[in-house]
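hey so i finaly got around to running the thing on CD200 molecule from Crocodylus porosus. pasting the sequence first so u can double check i didnt mess up the copy paste, my clipboard has been acting weird all day
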Amino acid sequence: MGSEINGQFDSHKTLQALVWYAAVTLLCRAHVDIETKMNQKAEVGSNATLRCVLRKPHDIIQVTWQKKTSSSPENVATYQKNSSKVQNPYRGRLDITGTSLDDTAITFWGVRIQDTGCYKCLFNTFPAGSLGKDTCLTVYEPLRISVSYSLSEGHLMANCSASGWPRPTITWLGLENQSKKTEEEVSDLNGTVLVTSHLYINNSESLVGQNLTCSASSMDEDKISSVKVEGKWSHSVPVAVSVVCVVILLVVILIVVCWRRHKKKQSEMARGAPPASNWL
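ok and heres what it spat out for the 3d tokens, dont ask me to read them lol
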């Protein structure tokens, strides 16, 4: 009796293992049969196409595109031989551009940051069932960076601004240990993030003539920007030079006038004429 029970148990385990093996084999074959790009990148506002090709012949009934979410897949578009449908909120900015049942594609017109994510193409076939594969889209905004500063009563405030998506990360080079740092960010309507880092430095005299440098990174992009610190003396030098030039010019004019007056007096005395009462 016990041997019969053990035999039944072993048979059940063997059957279960075969079912699992068949399911895994079918899933692997489905992934091998479907060709697609695993990861694609697109700049905000550009067009992006996701494509799947089912290489082996199947009796395809319907093709469905879904976006993977944390809760449940979200239908994007479906089509059969004689009909197609694009779901909201994609209607009007997404089209099914590959309408062959074994070569399917969807195109985003003017992608948004919210379109970032992984999508699944599903081929509903008979009798094999549903065959699918994932393709992921990353939407980005190019990185932009700028740096500036202001001086007030010996204190310096440096500002480094970086915009883009994914959210930029700002780093000050060589100044982190001698200053107080604050940071703020603002999101644009299209999802772009503007990050601004402020540095407050009390002893700004030591930085005169040096560069304030910050770097920003977003996704695979890195940029560096810098500005040279100029002290108040650099603005007063041109003014001082101008004043000196004006004084020298006035002295030269005065010397010339006096010299001409002296020469005129000598000429009049030589002719015996009384000296003129006026200058020139």
